[in-house]
Write a structure and sequence with these properties.
Elements lengths: L2 E6 L14 H8 L9 E5 L5 E4 L5 H6 L16 E5 L5 H4 L12 E4 L1 H9 L13 E3 L6 E4 L5 E10 L19 E7 L2 E6 L7 H7 L4 E5 L7 H4 L7 H4 L10 H4 L7 E5 L13 H8 L2 E2 L6 E2 L1
Parallel strand pairs: 3-4, 4-5, 5-6, 10-11, 11-12, 12-13
Antiparallel strand pairs: 1-2, 1-14, 2-3, 7-8, 8-9, 9-10
Length: about 300
């Protein structure tokens, strides 16, 4: 089945954020176990060749902290990273690509609108297409992921639209649809869904997730207005394209009856009290069958 390593748990800016003195960020500075880079996953069918889900700005440090992603010691230049699959064009999903410019071949897969965003920014030219080919992910069309030499990886991926929003720096420039996607990975008869950003759990999305072995889901906020109440921002979760964990329309309630084997929250904002072990919110999430992972957590 797909093997998954959580490289980063946090939403944009990580925990602690560089300029934030909220209670969680202060606590994380005192307690390194609460610290996390920005959300990214590594997925593999064989434990030797890995595909990243998004390339966070913290990618170099995440790779250094993850032995499975270290170069093979018999080679001067080597990486077990075979490719990167992008779910959106947000800064915290694509900026880490710039840390992968040292010459190793790998592939990039993304929805056409995300590839258009990369193509429109010349800085991504540091990843030349003869070494780092870019391939479009069509919605609802499973593909077998190849390794850089063309051999099968044993892992398939399928992209699907989820309710969301365009990257904030592109607002006003794009039409709806194709800006935020979820991913379904399959290997060995097992299924893993990854939905790192989602504005609403629609009936169609719920049915897609039903019966999955593992679901990694958008855990940005506990309540829709928590950033406003904390004085950290002026936007609600809905305005940012993120469904809350709690409440009758939240993700915990929406996924409660879907017979998912393992439910894991990722992309957790520094405002979210679920980050505090032992908090009432953490206890409620765990009682509902959810895991709040740490960087380095592995899911077979």
């Amino acid at each position: 089945m797909p093997q998954v390593i959580v490289l980063g748990v946090a939403a944009g800016g990580g925990v602690p954020q560089w300029n934030c003195n909220c209670g969680i960020c202060q606590q994380a500075r005192r307690d390194p176990s609460l610290q996390s880079g920005q959300a990214s996953l590594a997925v593999s069918a064989d434990g030797r060749h890995w595909f990243l889900v998004n390339a966070s700005p913290d990618l170099r440090a995440q790779v250094v902290a993850t032995p499975a992603l270290h170069p093979d010691p018999v080679h001067l230049r080597h990486t077990p990273i075979a490719g990167v699959i992008l779910t959106n064009a947000e800064v915290d999903a694509v900026a880490g690509l710039l840390s992968m410019r040292e010459g190793s071949p790998f592939g990039i897969w993304a929805p056409p609108k995300v590839l258009d965003t990369l193509a429109a920014n010349p800085i991504f030219g540091v990843l030349p297409p003869d070494r780092v080919p870019r391939r479009a992910l069509d919605m609802d069309a499973p593909i077998e992921l190849p390794l850089p030499d063309g051999t099968p990886s044993g892992l398939s991926v399928e992209a699907f639209d989820v309710p969301g929003k365009v990257a904030w720096y592109l607002e006003g420039q794009a039409e709806a649809g194709g800006d935020t996607v979820g991913l379904t990975f399959r290997a060995g008869g097992r299924t893993v869904h990854v939905v790192t950003a989602c504005a609403q759990v629609t009936p169609g999305l719920a049915e897609r997730l039903r019966g999955a072995d593992t679901v990694f889901f958008d855990g940005t906020l506990w309540t829709d207005d928590e950033m406003i109440r904390a004085g950290l921002g002026a936007k609600t979760g809905q305005r940012m394209g993120h469904v809350s964990m709690s409440g009758p329309d939240g993700s915990i309630a929406a996924l409660a009856s879907l017979d998912v084997g393992r439910k894991v929250f990722v992309h957790v904002n520094n405002s979210n009290p679920v980050l505090r072990p032992g908090s009432p919110e953490r206890q409620a999430a765990e009682a509902a069958g959810w895991t709040i992972p740490q960087a380095g957590s592995a899911f077979p």
